[in-house]
Amino acid sequence: RLPDGGIGLVVADVSGKGAGAALFMSMTRLLVRTMATRGYPPAEVARRTNYMLVQDNEAGMFVTMLYGAYDLSAGRLRFVCAGHNPPVRRFADGRTEVISLVHGVPLAVLPTPHYAVTDLVLSPGEAIVLYSDGVTDAQNDREEDFGMARLEAAVAGAPGNNARSLTEAILASVDTFAGDAGQPDDITLLVLNRPAGPVSAVPSTSGRLDEAIHLTLPARTAVLAKVAEMTASVARDAGFPEAEIQRITLAVEEVVTNVIAYTYGPGTTETLELDLIPRADGLAVPVTASGQPF
Q1: CB 16, CB 61: distance < 8 Å
Q2: What are the backbone angles phi and psi of residue 139, rounded to the nearest 5°?
Q3: How many CA within 13 A on the CB side of residue 237?
Q4: pLDDT attached to residue 74
Q5: HSE (CB half, 13 Å, CA atoms) of 228?
Q6: What angle do CA 182, 184, 190 make, to 5 degrees?
Q7: Rounded Cα distance, 82 and 15, in Å
Q8: CB of 190 within 8 A of CB of 130?
Q9: What pLDDT digit, counting tens, does each position of 220-268 carry?
């Protein structure tokens, strides 16, 4: 939910796999949510998120992202694309089109990229489908890709324009196509439908994060800087003063350091779980480890 009563939409995909990639995606998710709920427009959300990600990216990871701000009453969507797959639009009569976007480079590749905004208006009864390349890159046992043509056909063939019908139709089509073939990537779908009747703006939550951030981290001291960054960002968004943010961050760093040092020891390949949970009366930060007690 955005400060102006609109809705922020995002689909993203990180390069690589494993705990490092999961941490990088968690950082991206937190940064996008923070920038969006502070009221920045789409291009600025992408620019600021990119700036933070590119600062400390020794692993050379990157994230493709499609972020949009949706005005419920007018049906207006403002998209910014960081190297991500284009969305598919379904008109009220069942026709489809692939939305032509101005493509920018993926996040965390360049220090000062330019991100242009694409504007479109959904008419009542229309829908738009955002997805990851796990959909179009799904393969069958002959190693053929599902591809854009089949995706458009699945969107057009859905029995209705509501989000559930479109999602179920796409997933069923991918499952039928792939059969028993194993898939190399996960699948993400996000469907937005503009109903025929009037829609009111969603009440804002004053920019505060209202969801927990869950992290699976390598049990190595190299993650401490990222842990500190994310803890400080969540605490700042929850309204803590800077002096208190420093104390919270230091405490979390100390706990994670002790868990890594005494529960796992040097050279481990294990992981630990960390949650950042904003609450009305503070910030809860449980850390879960599966190593030896200390």
Answers
A1: yes
A2: -120, 155
A3: 28
A4: 93
A5: 14
A6: 105
A7: 13
A8: yes
A9: 887 888 888 888 888 887 888 999 999 999 999 999 999 988 888 777 8
DSSP structure class, residue 222: G
- Measured torsion, CA atoms of residues 193, 200, 39, 46, in degrees rounded to the nearest 10: 10
- How many whole angstroms separate alpha carbon 183 and alpha carbon 180? 9
Strand ranges (E), 219-263: none
Q: Which residue has the tokens 């480079």?
A: 105
Look at strands 76-82 and 103-104 and give their pairing: parallel
Query: Which pair of structure tokens corresponds to residue 10?
Result: 């995002």
- 13: enclosing H helix or E strand: strand 7-14
Residues in the chain: 294
pTM for the full predicted model: 0.74
Residue type, 38: R
Long-range contacts made by residues 12-16, C-beta under 8 angstroms, separation at least 24?
12/63, 12/64, 12/65, 12/66, 12/84, 12/107, 12/132, 13/63, 13/64, 13/65, 13/84, 13/132, 13/133, 13/134, 13/188, 14/61, 14/62, 14/63, 15/61, 15/62, 15/63, 15/106, 16/59, 16/61
User: CA of 109: how far to CAs of 30, 60, 113, 197, in Å?
Assistant: 18, 8, 9, 42
Count of CA atoms in the C-beta half-sphere (13 A) of 230: 29
Read off φ and ψ for residue 202, nearest 5 degrees: -85, 130
Q: Quote the distance between the C-alpha of residue 182 and its chain's center.
A: 24
Question: What's the DSSP call for residue 161?
Answer: S
Summarize pLDDT for 182-216 with one digit per residue, the tens.
Answer: 777 788 999 999 987 666 555 544 444 456 788 88
